[in-house]
Amino acid sequence: MIRENFLSLLDNNPWEKISGKIKNAGLDDVDRVLKKNKLDMDDFAILLSKAAAERISVLKKKAHQLTTQYFGKARFLYAPLYITNRCINSCVYCSFSEKNDIKRKYLNDTEIANDAEYLHNQGFRHILVVSGEDPIIMKSNYLINTIALLHKKFPSISIEVQPLTESLYRKAAAAGCDGLSLYQETYNRDVYKTVHTGGPKRNFKWRINGPERAACAGIKRINFGVLLGLADFRTDIWFAALHAAYIRKNFWRTQIGFSFPRIRPFVGSYHPDVEVKDNDMLHLILALRIMFPQASLVLSTRERPKFRDMLLSVAATNTSAGSKTNPGGYSDNSTTGQFDISDNRSPSEVIEAISAAGLYPVQKDWDIGLTG
Ligand code: SF4
To answer: How remote is the CA of residue 187 from the centroid of ligand 1, in Å?
Structure first.
């Protein structure tokens, strides 16, 4: 049975109150927090403040030291595999919105196997299955069959699909899924309503309880995030952290991680109100590393090569490489992608860059057998 504690936690932490805590933090607060060993959510608000940005070099040093302590030099690579761009939602920031007139496609088993073969030959053993939201995923065994098919070749499979029922998460885990990426997009309920103009995704509560259903179902790794730029990003990241801390506290076997998607060009005309600069994103990543030393911090190819390389050398631990964001994209370019990518390097070029920085690129994530 699903507890609704996280929603009460959300209600007990009004957006404006948290935003005020972040805005009002001063340099003295930052210096005090940086001396502490154990941090709480009030400390995290201080670490996210503009005052903390003035101590960016101290944050960088501390984040790097913690990353090295908990992850050594290993940096983990994965690749997304889009199985469909069909979607019944109307998110104003996404090419796959059902309002956009794009060519839609589901991959059949042969097409999935072709893309999987390509990625396997590139050395990937951790794959992220991505799709738009479509009732067929709930009603048929399409997703579960896809996971089972891919699990024959890939020991580690994550999914980034619509929020599922606990029973479907269980089936997904039984078929070989060990990870979930489910971003709330924004924890600001007003903004959430404005940018999700139609479809089941308008149900804030169903989505926000998704990670908890997945954790109940035994999914081992859960990745949190917000779409940076929809609302005040500092406050949004604070809530993503609160959500992750809640899951970690209640499901101690579940590993947590964070992703940092920034809005990229797509089919549509939405322009975010809030600009998130490179330095802002660096700051968020450093603050999260200091708050959650053991969390995976995940980068996508939305970001430019040089910037990604720098983040990987300091605090990020996982990265996609050679990504295509359209279904069947590794063998066919005729369908529309979800967004434009900024890092067009091949997987081997990304691996080379990681090695050149003195880090160890790892394409095979640790086996489920080792994580319990
Ligand atoms: S963000 Fe996801 S749910 Fe929204 S339109 Fe795009 S694919 Fe559909």
So the answer is: 17
- Dihedral of the CA atoms 134, 137, 140, 146 (nearest 10)? 140
Q: Which of 101, 104, 133, 195 to mutate to test the pocket of ligand 1 (most atoms within 8 A of CB)?
A: 133
Residue 38, domain member (yes or no): no
Residues in the chain: 372
CATH number at residue 123: 3.20.20.70
Rounded-to-integer distance, Cα 226 and Cα 259, Å = 8
| Ligand 1 pocket test, candidate residues 86, 95, 96, most atoms within 8 A of CB | 96
Collapsed DSSP state (helix, strand, coil) of residue 160: strand
For residue range 153-212, list pLDDT tens digits in order. 999 999 999 999 999 999 999 999 999 999 999 999 999 999 999 999 999 999 999 999
CA-wise closest residue to 353 among 292, 274, 277, 299 = 299
Residue 193 lies in a domain: yes
Count of domains in the chain? 1
pLDDT, one tens digit per residue, over 5-60 is 899 999 999 999 999 999 999 999 999 999 999 999 999 999 999 999 999 999 99
One-letter identity of residue 45:
A
| Residue ranges around ligand 1 (CB below 6 Å) | 87, 89, 91, 94, 96-97, 132-133, 201
Give the number of C-alpha atoms closer than 13 A to the C-alpha of residue 238, restricted to the C-beta side: 29
The answer to whether the pTM exceeds 0.90 is yes
Distance 88 CA to ligand 1 centre (A): 8
Rounded to the nearest 5°, which phi and psi values hold at 50? Answer: -65, -30
Host H or E run for residue 356: helix 347-356
For the CA of 85, the nearest atom of ligand 1 = 7
CB atoms within 10 A of CB 282: 22
| Closest CA to ligand 1's atom 7 | 132
